[in-house]
Amino acid sequence: MRPVKSGRYCVSKAEHFSPLDFQEGLPVSRSSYLFTSESVSEGHPDKVCDRISDEIVDMIYKEARRTGVDPWSVRIACETLATTNRVVIAGEVRVPETFLKKNKDGSIAHDAAGHPLINPSRFRSAARKAIREIGYEQDGFNWRTVKVDVLLHPQSADIAQGVDNAADRQGEEGAGDQGIMFGYACRETPDLMPAPIYYSHKILEKLAEARHKGEGDARKLGPDAKSQVTVRYENGKAAEVTQIVLSTQHLDASWDSRKVRSVVEPYIREALGDLPIAENCNWYINPTGKFVIGGPDGDAGLTGRKIIVDTYGGAAPHGGGAFSGKDTTKVDRSAAYAARYLAKNVVAAGLADRCTIQLSYAIGVAQPLSVYVDLHGTGKVAESAVEDALRKVMDLSPTGIRKHLDLNKPIYAKTSSYGHFGRKPGRDGSFSWEKTDLIKALKAAVSA
To answer: What is the pTM of this model?
Structure first.
């Protein structure tokens, strides 16, 4: 097969394409296809861990503000493991002194290596708070009785110096690590998200809301659930749902798949809204028949294992770095938020119908090493013009991102389930990366 190049597109000539599809200078893409994405609920074992890790991020930011500690100095890399009646919290932090162990004379306690010791009590409380709010009170995982081990310790001095004393910082902090981050936006939904992941989230949000409110039989649903939606695209637009998969924990052991479907189907239809469900749509509701044992009692959970659920459901690339449990010097988190913010504004400004942005960083270096834009053949302006414009409208150093999006706040627990993107900006400053306040600046920058 002969590769055919077209701008930034390169495809292999295959039998099912007409030769007309390969005219030089035209992008080649499919317009009719099926695409699937999944979501998981707040009670999924991995999401329990994400929530605990982000509950700790919020707690540390709150305490920094309360005690007058500069929130810019906070450093958090918090990982959580959860299994049957056990939670383990580990990682590296730089926290206010109120989180440190004290000797009887009031001085800070240190280990044999001279490192200050973390007082575990408030971290245990944060974990129990998260588990309680999710709704776990079952025998194998109960917020009251779960054992919580805290193995946090101070941030490595070697990493700290790379961030705090970046050689090129000129008043800016360096990136907390190397890596690549992606942002994406498209016109498939009101929030400029891909339809399959958007509706997969909506289904589980509706069910969780009903469960927490105690609505009818929905009150007998458990916290652990997964959804999956397949969308048929016609002429590049979401046309209908062809497959719906839902597995949800239920507390009544007598329920079978039919009973579960009778409970959840109205919420699924409500969540899908105006997106049609195909007449021959396949419904797979609790296909194993019973789902009583759930959460970390059924499967061990870890922070950072649902990175595709957290982002675009596979519709866009992912750099590989997780978000939860990290302060915003970690560009895995902050630069991914910035990339989504920029991509959403590019689409909202009418510069393209689809936009993918890649940013790359090196540890200790303030400015991104590269900025890449792909408009997928939908651009109204050249991609290089958009790349230049992005650097003009936003400082993409870690410091610049944190200032522009106002990220040094306790706003992260709510990001830990139902996606970090496609959410409504909150009055508390949460989801600031979902604002579309760069439209005028972008239009001006690409026209300059």
So the answer is: 0.91
Does the pLDDT of residue 157 top 80, yes or no? no
List the catalytic residue out of 65, 187, 290, 305: 305
Catalytic residue among 123, 141, 182, 291: 291
Which of 332, 374, 383, 434 is an active site residue? Answer: 332
- Predicted confidence band at 166 (pLDDT cuts at 50, 70, 90)? low
Q: Which of 38, 42, 46, 55 is catalytic?
A: 46
How confident is residue 100, by pLDDT bands cut at 50, 70 and 90?
Answer: very high
Q: What percent of the chain has pLDDT over 90?
A: 84
Examine the residue annotation and report whether 300 is marked as an active-site residue of this protein: yes
Domain at 45-164: CATH code: 3.30.300.10
Domain boundaries, the chain: 30-40+194-293, 45-164, 179-188+331-447
Contact present, 187 and 375 (Cβ < 8 Å): no
Is residue 44 flagged as an active site residue? Answer: yes
| Residue 46 falls in the annotated catalytic set | yes
Radius of gyration of the CA atoms of the chain, in A: 23
User: At 399, is the secondary structure helix, strand, or coil?
Assistant: helix
Which residue out of 44, 211, 354, 409 is catalytically annotated? 44
pLDDT at 167: 41
Burial class (CB in 10 A: 0-12, 13-18, 19+), 223: buried
To the query of whether residue 330 is one of the catalytic residues in this protein, the response is yes
Lowest mean pLDDT among 259-263, 288-292, 300-304, 318-322: 288-292
Considering the four listed CATH numbers 3.30.200.20, 3.20.20.210, 3.30.300.10, 2.60.40.10, the one that applies to the domain covering 30-40+194-293 is 3.30.300.10
Chain-centre distance of CA 250, in angstroms?
26
What are the DSSP E strand ranges found in 197-344? 221-234, 237-250, 277-285, 301-302
Catalytic annotation present for 414: no
Catalytic residue among 164, 265, 299, 388: 299
Region 179-188+331-447: CATH code: 3.30.300.10
Intrachain domains 45-164 and 179-188+331-447 with the same fold: yes
